[in-house]
UniProtKB/TrEMBL annotation, chains A, B:
Superkingdom field: Eukaryota
Coiled-coil ranges from the UniProt annotation: none
Full protein name: Lactoylglutathione lyase glyoxalase I family
Gene Ontology molecular function: any one: lyase activity
Length: 162, 162
C-alpha cells in the first residue's frame, strides 16, 4: 500500500496508549441541541443516556443550552452539544457540521425513517466505492447541518468489528 | 429528565431499524488526508484497515487524493478523506473540522503522544462536567483542524459499553 510519510520521525514508535472508547461529537448551533437530540431519537432510534445542561440560563438565552448529551445508536455512543463559547463548555470553538456513517442491513427503511423525521436526502442510493461504504450507500442531511451516510455493512468492517 | 419535545408527532414511534456500526468521518482539506492518516497512526496508534484513492490524478493535483481511508482506534473505526468535490466522492460538501472524544486510562500519556506527533494542546487538563467527560479531560487540536478530547472513562459509559 502506497503511503505518504510525513517525515516527523515519530512514525516508527508504536502507540503505548490504549483507547477504550471513541465518540463522535456533534456541535449544533445553539439552542438547537435539544431538538437535535429528539431528532436523532426519531430518525435513528438513538437512546439518550445522559444530558448535562449549561449551569445557568443567560438573559439572552430563551431556552437552556445543552453542554452535552450522550446518545447510544446501536452499540456506539455519540455526543451532541450546543455551540457555547464560554468557560463551562468542553467544546467551544468547533465548527458545526459533521459526517457520520451508519451501517445497517436495511438502507431503504433507515433512509425512510430519517426523512420521515425531517432529514433531507442527498442524491440517490448508489454503489459505494470507498473504504467505508463498498456496498450500497444513501445519504441524508439532518436539519442541524450534519451528514449521515447510510451504508450496507462492509464485509471487511464486519469482520473487524465482530 | 427534562426533555424538549419538538412537536413533530413522530417521536412516539420506536425505531425499527438496527444500526450495526457508527463511524465518524473526518474530511480534511485536500490533499492532506494521507498526512492525516499518518498523523493518526502516530498520535493515537490508529491502524489503517483500508484505503481507496481517487480514481484518477487530476492535472492540478500533485499527489493522489484519498477518497476514504478506514482507521481503527481501539475497537472503533473512523474514516478519513480528502475534501473532493466531484462525482467520485461519497462526501463532497462537508465542512472540515470534526470533534471526537477518546477515552483512555492514561490521559497524560495520550496527550503527550499526540503533541509529540504534532497536535497542539488546547487549554489545561480539567475536570469535565459534561455528559461525556465527567472525569478528567484534556484537549488537542490536530494539524488538520479536528479537535480530540482525551477523557478518562466515565463510569456510566463504561457500564454501557461493557
Amino acid at each position: 500500500m502506497a503511503e505518504v510519510q510525513n517525515g516527523s520521525g515519530a512514525e516508527e514508535k508504536a502507540s503505548t496508549v490504549a483507547f477504550t472508547a471513541v465518540k463522535p461529537w456533534l456541535v449544533v448551533d445553539a439552542p438547537k441541541a435539544s431538538d437535535a437530540v429528539q431528532f436523532y431519537k426519531t430518525a435513528f432510534g438513538a437512546e439518550e443516556l445522559s444530558r448535562v445542561m449549561h449551569p445557568k440560563r443567560k438573559a439572552d438565552h430563551e431556552i437552556p443550552l445543552v453542554l452535552s448529551a450522550e446518545l447510544r445508536i446501536g452499540s456506539a455512543i455519540i455526543v451532541v452539544s450546543d455551540l457555547i463559547d464560554d468557560s463551562s463548555a468542553t467544546v467551544k470553538s468547533a465548527v458545526t457540521g459533521g459526517v457520520i456513517c451508519l451501517e445497517t442491513e436495511d438502507i431503504e427503511a433507515a433512509l425512510a425513517q430519517a426523512v420521515d423525521a425531517g432529514a433531507t436526502t442527498e442524491g440517490e442510493i448508489s454503489e459505494g466505492e470507498d473504504a467505508c461504504c463498498r456496498g450500497r450507500v444513501g445519504k441524508v442531511k439532518d436539519p442541524y447541518g450534519n451528514i449521515w451516510l447510510i451504508c450496507s455493512p462492509s464485509k471487511k468492517c464486519a469482520d473487524v468489528e465482530a
